[in-house]
Write a structure and sequence with these properties.
- The chain is α+β, with helices and mostly antiparallel strands and about 230 residues long.
- The strands form 2 sheets. Strands 1-2-3-7 form a 4-stranded antiparallel β-sheet.
- Helix 1 packs antiparallel against helix 3.
- The longest helix has about 70 residues.
- The radius of gyration is 35 Å and the shape is elongated.
- The relative contact order is 0.16.
- The mean pLDDT is about 75.
Length: about 230
């Protein structure tokens, strides 16, 4: 009878220990869940930041393509444009804001910062929703924040114009051809079309790309002229 009573007493003493262990495991599980919630919120913020930065850079790249064609057509300087510079920001940051909101975040701080050398856009975002309530105090007011930078890189360089071939040296003096105009007329139309602009040759990733102002529909895709990528 005493032995049986001892075993019953031992069981009664172990029961609170079991409860404590179960409660501790439950708390750890909920804590891990809270950490997972925070991580998911942070990842969501980073996704929004990446999308916003890329949207700004891609919009700026499209503007560069338009400006490049205009410069070839009117004879403007190309060097800055080919290096990703020479135009205003335009709607690039508005595009960044829109894409951030589509990913449940808003731009914060300086919102959208253009940079040069290299040309880039840096954005900071804050998620629209907090982590939420959990066993860890304060998570209900914690938001995910992230930053991303997208770089516009040139793919092309301007090719120097080809050297004209030297004219052959005549061996005999040519005989003047009568023009039938004794008053000094030139007998011709004064040359070709002065308004025609020559085509521009670019070297893009090792291949030659020609931009012809007379055929703007043949302009290379802007993706072939500039790259856009997230900075490491």
């Amino acid at each position: 009878m005493k032995a049986r009573g001892y075993r019953n007493g031992d069981t009664g003493q172990a029961f609170p220990i079991y409860l404590t262990a179960v409660a501790a495991l439950l708390f750890l599980a909920l804590a891990f869940f809270a950490v997972g919630q925070a991580g998911a919120t942070r990842n969501g913020g980073q996704t929004a930041a990446d999308a916003a930065a890329l949207a700004a850079a891609q919009d700026y790249r499209d503007q560069l393509g338009t400006a490049l064609l205009a410069a070839v057509t009117d004879g403007g300087a190309l060097e800055d444009l080919l290096n990703g510079r020479g135009i205003g920001v335009g709607n690039a940051c508005e595009q960044a804001e829109w894409f951030a909101q589509q990913n449940a975040a808003n731009l914060t701080g300086d919102r959208c910062v253009p940079g040069y050398l290299p040309t880039s856009f840096t954005v900071t975002v804050k998620t629209q929703k907090p982590v939420g309530k959990s066993v860890i105090p304060g998570t209900e007011s914690q938001y995910g924040e992230a930053e991303a930078k997208a770089v516009i890189g040139p793919r092309c360089t301007l090719q120097p114009p080809a050297e004209p071939s030297p004219a052959p040296t005549p061996t005999t003096r040519p005989t003047p051809t009568p023009t039938g105009d004794e008053d000094g007329g030139d007998g011709g139309d004064g040359g070709g079309d002065e308004g025609e602009k020559p085509a521009t040759a670019l070297k893009c990733d090792g291949r030659t790309v020609t931009i012809d102002p007379a055929h703007p529909e043949l302009l290379p895709d802007v993706k072939d002229l500039f790259s856009v990528h997230l900075a490491d």
